[in-house]
Each structure stands twice: as structure tokens, then as C-alpha cells.
Amino acid sequence: MLQDAKSTKDSRVLATGLALWVFVWSAGFIAAPFVAMRSPQAFEMFEGVGRAVYAVGLMFFVVIRVLELMRRTNSAGEEASRK
User: How many domains does the chain have?
Assistant: First the structure.
């Protein structure tokens, strides 16, 4: 029962993180043409920030997945040792 509650909480955190990441990334995608019209130098900086946001989001999800896999492996090992 406790494991189910924890996985539900993890799912909510993951969904919230995904929604926030998509919002920030899409806002940047929409704003990019307006920044480019202002000045090319600002667009280059904006593009670098966009890549950083993408990379941080990607690393966030990779870390979450690795932690989830480690937890599942640990849970399977505990169940096997009980039997």
C-alpha cells in the first residue's frame, strides 16, 4: 500500500515536471521569432538558453527514470529475499 502511494506521488511529480518543462520550452519557441527581430545577438543568447532548458529537462527525466529503475530493482530484491 505504501509503495502504491509513493509511486502515485512520483507520477505526480514527474507529470508536473513534464508540464513545466513543456511550458517553458514552448514559450521559448513562441518567443524566439520576436527576439530574433530585435537583434541577432540576443537571439543567439536566447538560443543558448533554450538549449540549456532542453538539456536540464532531459537530464531531469533521465535521473528520475534511473532512480525509478533502481527502486524497482531494490523492491524486487527485497521480495526475492523474503521468499
Answer: 1
